[in-house]
Structure formats: C-alpha cells, structure tokens
Write a structure and sequence with these properties.
119 residues; mainly beta; 11 strands; 0% helix; 52% strand
C-alpha cells in the first residue's frame, strides 16, 4: 500500500496563499497522473487539479487562474500553489496518484491536509 503524505495546510485569510506539498514514498517518475482533490464537509470529493508525467495540467473551473499544480519527479513530490484563496476553497485537500486519466483519481491517496480560509 502506497501512502502519500500531504503537508502545508493551515489557516489563511481570504485572498491569501498556501502551498501544499505531497511526498510519495516511491518513485513517481513512472506514475502518469498526480492530482489534488478536495472535500468540504457534507460534500463529495472533487478534483482540483491534475498533472501528467510530462507536465500537462488540468484544473477545475473554480480554481483556474488561482491554483498551480506542479511535480518534481526527481524528488518524488507534487505541489499545489494556491493563491487568492476564498472561503469556498476551505476543505480537506488530498493528494492522489496512479490514475491514467487527468479527470479520474488513481488508487493511491494521502491522509489529507486541512485548509481553512477565514473571511
């Protein structure tokens, strides 16, 4: 079982920024898709952003222009740079890996990191 480890969540004011990190215990060079999902209380877990091994990205409409996903295959890390955060961005953010598709999750998940945005 591969357990991804997220970090970087926390409390931020509206309009602020956070950078989430995802550490993989295995080499991600062979993993096609890395992604970030989020789940707010009472809601389903939704895709935020995903990135292919070659750097092709996909974003949900709600975060386009504000969030940037990246990956460092040499360090086995993925990142989510979040800017202009809004209260509706508050959620538990999960790192995901292993999918063959940008819009679907793979089988590897992290435990999640909480992002809280104060208004």
């Amino acid at each position: 079982q591969v357990q991804l480890v997220e970090s970087g969540g926390g409390l931020v004011q509206t309009g602020g920024s956070l950078r989430l990190s995802c550490a993989a215990p295995i080499s991600i060079s062979s993993i096609n898709i890395m992604g970030w999902y989020r789940q707010a209380p009472g809601k389903q877990r939704d895709l935020v952003a995903s990135i292919t091994r070659g750097g092709i990205t996909q974003y949900s409409d709600s975060v386009k222009g504000r969030f940037t996903i990246s990956r460092d295959n040499a360090k086995n890390m993925a990142y989510l740079q979040m800017s202009s955060l809004q209260p509706e961005d508050a959620a538990v953010y999960y790192c995901n890996a292993g999918s063959l598709y940008l819009h679907r999750p793979g089988k590897y998940w992290g435990q999640g990191t909480q992002v809280t945005v104060s208004s």
